[in-house]
Specification:
Layout lengths: L19 E5 L3 H7 L4 H18 L7 E8 L7 H24 L2 E6 L7 H13 L6 E9 L1 H17 L8 H5 L12 E4 L18 E4 L9 H11 L10
Parallel strand pairs: 1-2, 1-5, 2-4, 3-4, 5-6
Helix pairs in contact: 1-2, 2-3, 3-4
Length: about 240
């Protein structure tokens, strides 16, 4: 696609392009089932779509992209699907490391890692270290992530700091510093594909003032053109953050 690179300006001349976009990538399984294919085919196609969106983001003015790959609730799916998803994650990290490093993408992961197998954890840590110096796009992948789980873990970390005397009167900034996303900007825009209109425990703290866009497009069909049109609509929104 020919990416739109001109700034989105409000009538007052303010650049309204979102710095950070977060996406709930929903609809992979349905996409496959609608075509009479196994659900894992949809997940593999969804992984290919991630690569296209990642490549398009810098030209669209997006500096931070966070994608919801696997939730704490997704363990309830069949063993076959869960194992297949973990295999897709391993292959994605293994085979995309070179391309991400070359294209200036910094890759990080959020979520509890202790339940993931050791090989996947090692691959995650390796690509995080390898891409740590990249600045063209910050890509964060949420694996075994749940917003409530993250907040509980953050509260436990903060309590430990209080016990050590590092914090006296805990505040919002102290809790934010204990989140998986410490140091990340909050998302400006959260997109959910597939027509569902719920947030599914995704970034509840960070997205407190984010704009939301729900699209009926299933994730494997979500193209950079779809993203560009949503960014255009975002530019028309009046974000007051509680003000007048």
């Amino acid at each position: 696609m020919a990416a739109e690179t001109a700034p989105l300006l409000t009538p007052g001349g303010v650049d309204q392009r979102p710095r950070h976009v977060a996406i709930i990538m929903d609809g992979n399984g349905r996409w496959a089932v609608e075509r009479g294919w196994p659900r894992l085919v949809g997940h593999r196609r969804g992984a290919e779509r991630v690569k296209q969106i990642v490549r398009a983001c810098p030209d669209l003015g997006v500096n931070w992209l966070t994608v919801y790959a696997f939730s704490t609730e997704n363990w309830k799916r069949s063993t076959e699907e869960v194992l297949g998803l973990m295999k897709i994650f391993r292959r994605y990290i293994q085979y995309e490391a070179e391309g991400m490093a070359a294209e200036g993408v910094r890759l990080r992961f959020i979520g509890g890692r202790e339940r993931l197998d050791g090989k996947l954890q090692a691959l995650m840590s390796s690509i995080e270290a390898r891409t740590a110096g990249n600045t063209r796009l910050n890509l964060t992948v949420a694996i075994n992530y749940g917003g409530r789980d993250e907040l509980a873990r953050a509260a436990a970390r903060m309590a430990q700091k209080v016990a050590r005397g590092e914090i006296t009167v805990p505040g919002e900034a102290d809790l934010a510093a204990c989140l998986d996303t410490a140091g990340h900007p909050d998302p400006d825009l959260v997109i959910r594909t597939s027509g569902e209109t719920r947030v599914s425990n995704f970034l509840p703290w960070q997205a407190a003032y984010a704009e939301y866009e729900f699209t009926p497009t299933l994730w494997p069909d979500f193209t950079p053109d779809h993203l560009a049109r949503i960014l255009d609509r975002f530019g028309m929104r009046d974000r007051r953050f509680g003000g007048v």
